[in-house]
Amino acid sequence: MRDPYSVLGVAKSASEGDIKKAFRKLAKKYHPDQNKNDPEAQQRFAEVNQAYEIVGDKEKRAKFDRGEIDAEGKQKFHSQGFEGFSGYEDFGSAGNTRGFKSSTRGAGGFDDILNDIFGGFGGGRGKSGAGARPGAGAAGAGARTQPPPKTKGKNAEIVARVTLEDIVNSGKAQVTLPNGKTVNATLPKGVVDGEKIRLKGQGHPGANGGPAGDAMVEVRIRPHKLFEVKGSDIVLDLPLTLYEAVLGAKIKTPTLTGAVNLTIPANASSGKVMRLKGKGLPTKSGGHGDLLVKLQIVLPSHADGELETLMKAWKEVTPYKARGPEFD
After folding, report:
1. 269: pLDDT strictly greater than 80
2. What is the rounded CA–CA span in Å between residue 68 and residue 317?
């Protein structure tokens, strides 16, 4: 571990405010969230944290400046006169103090020797035991493991396919979330094809206890076998026989909320549009669009001699124009 002042880029005489300012700047620069694929930056972040652990704490900073602890917050031990101490190997073994005592006979009591070597951290046989090693009780005292940062989970991109009946009747879309759970998402008023709905916290789980991402649900409207969507209106082609168009009729006509009887006026032309108000899709303002019924006259699929004879006579007796002058 380098000198904490050097790590933070401040002088030893720097004020508490300058130290805190330098730490914040470096922590922001090397934070793992900003450097997810840079192990060197993450290591630098840990080094900055450790440095601030020492000089950012008034008491530890004073101890470090006095040389009582090292850059990792570990206690320093002074061993003046330790060289040539023949009993050290026995002292460091698993509780074997016999050689230690014989080599220090006349040099004072056991606790006094420990105090001379370790600066009072031995505490005697009953406290640390004869087999205690220098610094064993203080190792890592100032170190603190930084927990990994909490990271929000990724958003889940989901496609929900809905029918026109779903939009009008239930107003819900069935959605399967990343965890396998199925929920009914509320469709917004006036929803259109391709619109997205955000389900907060329903996406992929976060890392290290971080919040889950969101589920982004894209609404896709399924094609309908009868209706075509035109904004909030829907269009229906309604086939008619020739005699229904000429004489008029009541025709059972499907809608998204059930069939209705539609009155076709006599002499109705093919292509005529009839409007059923409020039978379309919901609008963003809270109302509904309309159902536009386009009449389509359908002739018999097989030849009919009587119809041909009637049409020839009709052409002679009552001719009329179907096209305007723009077609001339």
Report:
1. yes
2. 123
Q: Residues 282, 187, 181, CA angle at the centre, nearest 5°?
A: 155
Closest by CA position to 157, among listed 221, 202, 206, 208: 202
Would you say the C-alpha torsion 250, 254, 256, 259 has a positive or negative sign? positive
Q: Where are the beta strands (DSSP E) in the chain?
A: 156-162, 172-176, 182-186, 196-199, 215-221, 227-230, 233-240, 249-253, 260-264, 273-276, 291-297
Task: Please report how many Cα atoms fall inside a 13 Å half-sphere around the Cα of residue 169, on the Cβ side.
Answer: 9
Q: Number of helices (H) and strands (E), helices first, in the chain?
A: 10, 11
Note the pLDDT of residue 144: 62
How far is the C-alpha of 80 from the C-alpha of 117, rounded, in Å?
7
Q: Specify the DSSP class assigned to residue 93.
A: S
Range with lowest mean pLDDT among 18-27, 107-116, 160-169, 284-293: 107-116
- The enclosing H or E element of 48 equals helix 39-55
Burial of 64-85, coded b for 16+ CB within 10 Å and e otherwise, reads: beeeebbbbbbbeeeeeeeeeb
Helices (H), 56-184: 58-65, 88-92, 98-103, 110-118, 164-165
Predicted pLDDT at 324: 84
Residues 297 and 251 sit within 8 Å (Cβ to Cβ): no
SS3 of residue 308 by DSSP: helix
